[in-house]
Amino acid sequence: MKNSIAVVALALSLVSLGFQAHNAKPAARFDKFLVPVQISDFDYRSLAADQHMLRSSVVMQNGIGVPFLKKVSDDHERLVVWVIVSDEDMPKGYDERKKALLVAAVGAVSVVGSEFDFGFEPNAVSVEFWTMAQIMNKVKLPYAEYVKGGLIVH
Predict the structure, then answer these.
(1) Beta bridge partners of 85
(2) Is residue 82 part of a domain?
(3) How many domains in the chain?
(4) Once rounded to an integer, what is the mean pLDDT over residues 33-60?
(5) Rounded CA gap, 13 and 16, in Å?
(6) Is residue 15 part of a domain?
(7) Nearest one of 134, 121, 128 to 151, comparing CA atoms
(8) Is 14 domain-assigned?
(9) Given the DSSP bridges, would you call strands 79-85 and 125-131 parallel, antiparallel or unpaired?
(10) Which domain holds residue 105?
(11) Is residue 1 pLDDT above 60, yes or no?
(12) Mean pLDDT of 121-129
């Protein structure tokens, strides 16, 4: 009798573990980076100041500014990069403009991928191109966006 109870308890435990393993949701891609790290307030502020100074001192090329990592998506599966653009200073032809945006987007995805140790993976990084007027007017849709390996110009 004692052996049969132990066998039933073991079987129930195994079934329970099976259900737990089956229903377990894998951790989001960027969860491992969203943990506290040891950095002094001085180092953090120095890095932030350096980033701001670098970004403001770099001149736009073809009306396209320096990409910067803006945020992690709500599901922690994608990083969002922003690029400020000047519609007036970008190439006039549609194909040339699209090529310039694509070069900037692919470059940003490559750099971010190398820093986060996954290489070039367009599903992990999206790039949004915004004009200053769009940002100031709180427009919801970017000028253009590079998502899952494709460029969409709005």
Answers:
(1) 64, 131
(2) yes
(3) 1
(4) 84
(5) 5
(6) no
(7) 128
(8) no
(9) parallel
(10) 28-153
(11) no
(12) 91
